[in-house]
Write the structure tokens for this entry.
Amino acid sequence: MPIALITGASAGLGAEFARQLAALGHDLVLVARDSDRLEALAATLSVRVQVLAVDLLDPVAVARVEARLAATDSPVDYLVNNAGYGMPREFDENSADEEARQLELLATVPLRLAHAALSQMLPRRSGRILTVASTAGFAGLGTYSAAKSWALVFSRWANAYYRTSGVIVTALAPGFVRTEFHERMGVPRESMAPAFAWLDAERVVRAALRDVERRKAVSIPSLRYKTLIGIMPLLGPVIRVGVARRGTAARS
């Protein structure tokens, strides 16, 4: 059976990717910090599951995941770079170390894991690399947005560059999704966006997996967000900053 490795698999989109890829016949390698939640999820799946309870901000732990991705014995066929988090405060209110750790998890870690996966996918001329970005990556609103834009740029390039090598590279750019993400930030969901803006994790993941098989470089799993991204270049920087300021006020 093909094998999928999913980071940030203990909850939210990561857990939903695990469920849907298992339903499609993939054995799994689940990566997150919370071993209890990973084991509980694994117990609900009818496929073989390897649990790697590691902190991806620990270089030793990242090296362990890289080694699993680079292994040619029982190779990983599908990498889902999903691990991430947001911070409720503005750039100047966080320490430089806090900002650097977020950038590490959102950009550097996916880079390292994709590089490791390609080392065995390219010789086999087969593989899938899906990185969870965000519609925020199109917006130019803060350092989370800047970090998420990395996945968009990288995936567009890699999708074209490796297209003839049997490896598909895609970035998923959802909007607001009903998961634990905002609760973990300590931000009430209702303060972030109106009800119509929220997407279901199941539908987001289903659309993403479908778009990967369609060889799309970027998956935007909603007409409302495709429309928003389409008009975003028309929004001047002053308007974008105004939106960001209102979001900050809502969080305070």
Summary: Residues 22 and 47 are 6 Å apart (CA to CA). The longest helix spans residues 96-124. The radius of gyration is 18 Å.
